[in-house]
């Protein structure tokens, strides 16, 4: 497990209606090789629901990063992570169409999600 120099983020409760398009906001710019759509990434992340602010998932809470190919993730991550560099922190606000769909059996279907992602490494 790699250690991120950053600590678990706190997400401020958003104001106004949820955006209908993917929002990408760099909080900290990293250094080194950029993540590509074809990359495997190691990240720390926090995910909350836009409407309630409730945390639904966090690698920070499990105490370890996760490592996976970008192409296996939700579309919002596939579009929102490329261009990040190791050591970077980025906030993604992901509408349902780019998360778990507008309807369906997934508990997060139909929800806009906010993620703060720390890119630890790229391969």
Automatic annotation (TrEMBL):
Pfam families: FKBP_C. It comes from the Bacteria. The keyword Isomerase applies. Residues 38-123 form the PPIase FKBP-type domain. Gene3D superfamilies: 3.10.50.40. Keywords: Isomerase, Rotamase. It catalyses: [protein]-peptidylproline (omega=180) = [protein]-peptidylproline (omega=0). InterPro entries: PPIase_dom_sf (IPR046357), PPIase_FKBP_dom (IPR001179). This is Peptidyl-prolyl cis-trans isomerase. The lineage of its organism: Bacteria, Bacillati, Actinomycetota, Actinomycetes, Micrococcales.
